[in-house]
Write a structure and sequence with these properties.
Layout (H helix, E strand, L loop, with lengths): L6 E5 L12 E5 L8 E11 L1 H7 L18 E8 L11 E4 L2 E3 L5 H4 L10 E2 L4 E3 L5 E3 L7 E5 L3 E3 L6 H4 L5 H12 L11 E5 L3 H12 L3 E6 L5 H7 L3 E4 L14 E6 L9 H5 L2 E9 L11 H7 L2 E4 L5 H14 L5 E5 L2 H12 L6 E5 L1 H4 L2
Parallel strand pairs: 12-13, 12-15, 13-14, 15-16, 16-17, 18-19
Antiparallel strand pairs: 1-2, 3-4, 3-10, 3-19, 4-5, 5-11, 6-7, 8-9
Helix pairs in contact: 1-10, 4-5
The protein binds NADPH dihydro-nicotinamide-adenine-dinucleotide phosphate (NDP).
The site of NADPH dihydro-nicotinamide-adenine-dinucleotide phosphate has 33 residues, from α1, α4 and α5.
Length: 371
């Protein structure tokens, strides 16, 4: 198969408030092809909240570089494999998430925690340090092709369509990883763990399903009751509309073992109150990455000796475990599709940022978007 030396994507050129979603086609040179790399012809890429944050430079990264092609829930077909690639061949349907490189040699990588490797490279908006000494800026999945090290490429179970598979690659594994690492396993026989999920968006919808599949009694916190019916369809046992129920915390104080927070903003966000829902020694894990810091009083931790932490994506091993569990239990994301184009990317990014999609937008037909 013949394909180009340079790749093409829909890039954000200017992250300012008026232009962040107005992408334009952009040609870029991928990193040099190395012996464990795989080139993938992209078919579908779904839109994560992090794409919108990055397109807006919402986290205020001083060295953020534009043009930037975002997108890191990628599904496509293998078109080229390096000489040291094992387990993948041309034609395989595969997926790529938000991480595309790590050293794979340090003690962090060797303990299956490569998501915390100091040398990690994100699929877009990061810098590859290539073996030939050069550096390359990474561009993401709103593109025709991507080039990724085999460790960060995954086979897709046949039961999932492209658009169903894509959100697993970031939203899915980002919720699966902290759940399996933090749901308590030492409860007395017959006692179910109780898990809260804050926010029903792309991550939240996956978190609810995984929490349930992992055997937890699942509490869903949403700001209004608009998504209540959906929360129960996704598997919630309890639903709390924090913006509508005054004193909502009273019924669930000291109840939960774990709360996973997927909120992407801090507007009217009262962390001190949420923490009261935790049992003694319970855990709050943030995966949502709002653009402004949390405010929390040290006294809130004293009240129930709770812990607060965060989690980043999920490891190679967890990605494989997640797809296996999802295929066995029939877990699927709820996805709206939009064909990939300048207008389609703009529509999808804005739907995500303004909380208007139910619950993930997948950009499809990438092959038709590029010559
Ligand atoms: P979505 O926009 O799809 O969903 C975010 C949800 O957060 C909303 O639907 C809303 O749910 C809830 N929310 C928003 N603002 C508030 C608020 N002020 N208080 C309470 N809840 C709120 O985004 P994604 O699910 O794609 O991403 C969520 C976040 O996770 C983003 O910040 C993203 O960058 C981050 N992320 C982190 C990763 C990691 O490795 N840690 C990986 C991937 C993403 P509702 O309407 O139900 O209240």
């Amino acid at each position: 198969m013949v394909y180009p030396d340079t790749f093409e994507g829909f890039a954000v050129f200017d992250p300012s408030p008026e232009t962040w979603s107005s992408v334009k086609k952009y040609e870029f040179t991928p990193k040099p092809f190395e012996e464990e790399d795989i080139d993938i012809k992209i078919e579908t890429c779904s839109i994560c909240g992090s794409d919108a944050h990055s397109a807006r430079n919402g986290w205020g990264k001083p060295n953020a570089q534009y043009p930037m092609v975002v997108g890191h829930e990628i599904v496509g077909k293998v078109v080229r494999v390096g000489p040291k690639v094992t387990g993948f061949k041309v034609g395989d349907r595969v997926g790529v998430g938000a991480q595309s490189q790590a050293c794979l040699e340090c003690k962090i990588c060797k303990s299956n925690n490569e998501i915390y490797c100091p040398k990690l490279v994100h699929t877009f908006g990061s810098i590859y340090h290539n073996k030939d000494g050069s550096t390359t800026f990474s561009h993401g999945g709103y593109s025709n092709y991507c080039r990724i090290h085999q460790y960060f490429v995954f086979h897709i179970p046949e039961i999932f369509t492209n658009e169903e598979a894509a959100p697993f690659l970031c939203a899915g594994v980002t919720t699966f990883s902290p759940l399996i690492r933090n749901i308590p396993t030492n409860l007395p026989e017959g006692v179910k763990p109780k898990v809260g999920i804050v926010g029903i968006g792309g991550l939240g919808m996956m978190g609810i399903q995984f929490s349930k599949a992992l055997g937890a009694e699942t509490y869903v916190f949403s700001r209004s009751s608009k998504k209540k019916e959906d929360a129960f369809k996704l598997g919630a046992d309890h639903f709390i509309a924090t913006g509508e129920q005054e004193n909502w915390i009273e019924d669930i104080s000291y109840e939960l073992d774990l709360i996973l927070c997927t909120a992407n903003s801090n507007e009217n966000f009262d962390l001190n109150t949420y923490l009261k829902a935790l049992k003694i020694g319970g855990k709050w894990v943030s995966v949502g990455l709002p653009e402004s810091p949390f405010t929390v009083s040290p006294r809130s931790f004293m009240a129930n000796a709770c812990f607060m932490g965060a989690s980043h994506l999920g490891s190679h091993v967890e990605m494989i475990q997640m797809f296996k569990l999802a295929a066995e239990k029939g877990i699927k994301p709820w996805v709206e599709t939009i064909p990939m184009s300048e207008a389609g990317v703009k529509e999808g990014l804005e739907k995500c940022h303004y909380n208007k999609c139910r619950y993930r937008v997948a950009l499809t037909d990438a092959d038709k978007a590029f010559d």
